[in-house]
């Protein structure tokens, strides 16, 4: 039951049909010159159809010299108005409000990527890039404030219901708010009243120019660092904003100035649900205007608890809506299908950082919303495929995604799993600390496939005869991968997969060398350090776990460092003599004492069943890791697209 989430509410002049608001998240679905596209309109329209009461669209740069990403939206010129008007219309047709977020990145602008000059309240260095930051002159401050006013006017002309100023997460307004960065000695520095002056003056300028345009402000309740501003400062800022006519406060946390602090903005699974609630409550209690809270609100009960505790008046959903556009309607019981849960892997945020379009591990169809809805939720399709008999070998991630999609299209689906339980590598994936929330990426698919009529049989060794007897029209081979073997003179390495499943394979107190510093290598290292083993990681590349989202990687690396883990990059092991492991690091010979060696050097496709499949002469397709080992995103996309293609490739 979600009575509090479903209750209507009021923000300024607007009545909201429920307490759920889509948080602003970049997509990189725009054009290279900052225009809205059919792709981002379809993306937002689907979330509006999914049931949120309001959508805060992604941050738009107000100045020509202040862009966030290569394909992010811009609003510094009137030519952007028509596209934004079409965007607003696509949202409004689903009884959903549109709020446009305006931003200037200030010191976090990037010379290397976008040739933008980093500017801020005081001379500084961007920790992410090392770029020098130039202090803004007073006339430049005034010019930026005018940019915000003219940008707000363009939102108003485009038909937006409200405007939100982004004063959180380490961008220009927050740079002025924090004494860590703001060292000015003029009227924009010093006391909290002075540090808030840029934001308050901008609010007043917008209110003067557009008195009937509702104004929201997003702030970070805390910076999560010792020299950051105290909560008392943000309570004072909140009261000033309320007095200035702001109608809602959108509460976030952290700052994107470095990976260590960014993980508090886009939290990894190690952080608790409702992680910002304790920091938001003092602000909510201090003001009379509505507050909106974000921060690892994954399930409906998380949002219900925030509202029941009086910690906020509305709930902000970001990654949860990336994973499932229909989260609200499913939470309210309007759609019987369970919510596709966000697993906080942060691939969505990482792709933006790498200047790619946003993607979601658990939602492989994200970004294709301009296609028919039944491609993402095939069970909702008005038509069904001509039923065919599909046999899937393997009940892991790829196998169950293919089973879900094929069964939803109306095919007769049976899954054969060689082991005595389904799941494949998911059991290894959730064995690492703080990874249990990854399980729904598989279990949701398993449960949905069964609900849609697919059958799963375990303990089945597929043979050519048994497959011929089953008489499928098509076979999907989803048998996954196996660990890549490591030959090392003087030692017989254990495989990381085996150690994750049974850490006791490594003796207590052992000195362990983990060969391979990818995701699996780091996770097996943490499992061992938590059990008292002393771990050294050797990685042949210059970077550890580059496939891992940097917020999550940073979080894990900090824990490993605290545990005393040693790291060696550009390192290659050569041999073990007694208890001495010989290796090279950046070409220089090195040694370390070891009692055990664990191999984590990747995976190769497991195609042991392929000869039996080929002997049937039945058409087949390799999918997932059996096709090409990858991460959850690549595996699920491959399985999903292949299952949809069955409609086209099977004979009538």
Automatic annotation (TrEMBL):
<dbReference type="GO" id="GO:0010181">
    <property type="term" value="F:FMN binding"/>
</dbReference>
<feature type="domain" description="NADH:flavin oxidoreductase/NADH oxidase N-terminal">
    <location>
        <begin position="7"/>
        <end position="331"/>
    </location>
</feature>
<dbReference type="InterPro" id="IPR036188">
    <property type="entry name" value="FAD/NAD-bd_sf"/>
</dbReference>
<keyword id="KW-0288">FMN</keyword>
<dbReference type="InterPro" id="IPR001155">
    <property type="entry name" value="OxRdtase_FMN_N"/>
</dbReference>
<dbReference type="GO" id="GO:0016491">
    <property type="term" value="F:oxidoreductase activity"/>
</dbReference>
<dbReference type="InterPro" id="IPR051793">
    <property type="entry name" value="NADH:flavin_oxidoreductase"/>
</dbReference>
<dbReference type="GO" id="GO:0051536">
    <property type="term" value="F:iron-sulfur cluster binding"/>
</dbReference>
<keyword id="KW-0408">Iron</keyword>
<comment type="similarity">
    <text>In the N-terminal section; belongs to the NADH:flavin oxidoreductase/NADH oxidase family.</text>
</comment>
<keyword id="KW-0285">Flavoprotein</keyword>
<dbReference type="GO" id="GO:0046872">
    <property type="term" value="F:metal ion binding"/>
</dbReference>
<keyword id="KW-0560">Oxidoreductase</keyword>
<dbReference type="Pfam" id="PF07992">
    <property type="entry name" value="Pyr_redox_2"/>
</dbReference>
<dbReference type="InterPro" id="IPR023753">
    <property type="entry name" value="FAD/NAD-binding_dom"/>
</dbReference>
<keyword id="KW-0479">Metal-binding</keyword>
<dbReference type="InterPro" id="IPR013785">
    <property type="entry name" value="Aldolase_TIM"/>
</dbReference>
<feature type="domain" description="FAD/NAD(P)-binding">
    <location>
        <begin position="389"/>
        <end position="612"/>
    </location>
</feature>
<keyword id="KW-0411">Iron-sulfur</keyword>
<dbReference type="Pfam" id="PF00724">
    <property type="entry name" value="Oxidored_FMN"/>
</dbReference>
<protein>
    <submittedName>
        <fullName>FAD-dependent oxidoreductase</fullName>
    </submittedName>
</protein>
């Amino acid at each position: 039951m979600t009575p509090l989430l479903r209750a209507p509410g009021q923000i300024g002049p607007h009545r909201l049909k429920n307490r759920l608001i889509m948080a602003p998240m970049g997509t990189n679905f725009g054009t290279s010159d900052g225009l809205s596209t059919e792709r981002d309109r379809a993306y937002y329209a689907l979330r509006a159809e999914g049931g949120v009461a309001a959508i805060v669209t992604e941050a738009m740069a107000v100045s020509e010299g202040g862009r966030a990403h290569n394909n992010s939206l811009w609003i510094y010129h009137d030519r952007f108005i028509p596209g934004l008007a079409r965007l607003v219309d696509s949202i409004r047709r689903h009884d959903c409000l549109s709020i446009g977020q305006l931003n200037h990145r200030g010191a976090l602008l990037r010379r290397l990527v976008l040739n933008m000059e980093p500017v801020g309240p005081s001379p500084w260095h961007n920790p992410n890039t090392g770029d020098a930051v130039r202090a803004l002159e007073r006339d430049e401050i005034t010019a930026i404030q005018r940019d915000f006013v003219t940008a707000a006017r363009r939102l108003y002309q485009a038909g937006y219901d409200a405007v939100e100023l982004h004063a959180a997460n380490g961008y220009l307004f927050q740079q002025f708010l924090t004494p860590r960065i703001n060292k000015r000695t003029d009227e924009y520095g010093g006391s909290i009243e002075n540090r808030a002056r840029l934001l308050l003056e901008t609010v007043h300028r917008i209110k003067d120019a557009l008195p009937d345009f509702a104004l929201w402000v997003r702030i970070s309740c805390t910076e999560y660092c010792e020299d950051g501003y105290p909560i008392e400062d943000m309570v004072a800022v909140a009261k000033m904003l309320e007095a200035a006519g702001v109608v809602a406060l959108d509460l976030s946390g952290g700052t994107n100035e470095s990976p260590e602090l960014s993980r508090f903005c886009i939290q990894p699974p190690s952080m608790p649900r409702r992680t910002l609630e304790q920091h938001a409550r003092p602000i909510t209690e201090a003001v009379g205007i509505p507050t909106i809270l974000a921060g690892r609100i994954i399930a409906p009960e998380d949002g219900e608890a925030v509202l029941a505790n009086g910690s906020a008046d509305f709930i902000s959903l970001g990654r949860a809506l990336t994973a499932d556009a229909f989260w609200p309607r499913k939470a309210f019981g309007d759609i019987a299908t369970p919510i596709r849960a966000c697993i906080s892997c942060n691939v969505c945020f990482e792709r933006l950082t790498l200047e790619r379009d946003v993607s979601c591990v658990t939602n492989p169809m994200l970004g294709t919303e301009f296609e028919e809805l039944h491609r993402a939720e095939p069970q909702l399709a008005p038509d069904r495929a001509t039923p065919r008999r599909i046999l899937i070998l393997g009940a892991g991630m790829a196998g169950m995604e293919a089973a879900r999609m094929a069964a939803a299209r109306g095919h007769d689906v049976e899954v054969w799993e060689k082991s005595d339980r389904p799941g494949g590598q998911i059991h290894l994936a959730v064995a690492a600390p703080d990874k249990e929330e990854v399980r729904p990426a598989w279990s949701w698919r398993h449960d949905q496939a069964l609900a849609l009529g697919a059958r799963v049989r375990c303990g089945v060794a597929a043979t050519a005869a048994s497959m011929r007897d089953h008489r499928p029209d098509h076979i999907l081979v989803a048998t996954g991968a196996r660990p890549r073997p490591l030959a090392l003179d003087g030692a017989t390495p254990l495989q990381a997969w085996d150690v994750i499943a049974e850490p006791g394979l490594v003796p207590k107190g052992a000195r362990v060398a983990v060969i391979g510093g990818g995701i699996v290598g780091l996770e097996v290292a943490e499992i061992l350090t938590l059990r008292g083993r002393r771990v050294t990681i050797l990685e042949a590349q210059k970077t550890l776990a580059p496939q891992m989202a940097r917020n999550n990687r940073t979080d894990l690396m900090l824990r490993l460092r605290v545990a005393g883990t040693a790291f060696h990059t550009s390192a290659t092991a050569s041999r073990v003599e007694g208890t001495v492991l010989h290796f090279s690091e950046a070409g220089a010979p090195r040694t370390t004492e070891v009692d055990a060696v664990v191999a984590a050097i990747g995976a190769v496709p497991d195609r042991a069943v392929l000869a039996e499949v080929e002997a049937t002469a039945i058409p087949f397709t390799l999918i997932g890791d059996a096709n090409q080992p990858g991460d959850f995103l690549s595996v699920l996309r491959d399985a999903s697209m292949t299952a949809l293609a069955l409609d086209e490739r099977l004979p009538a």
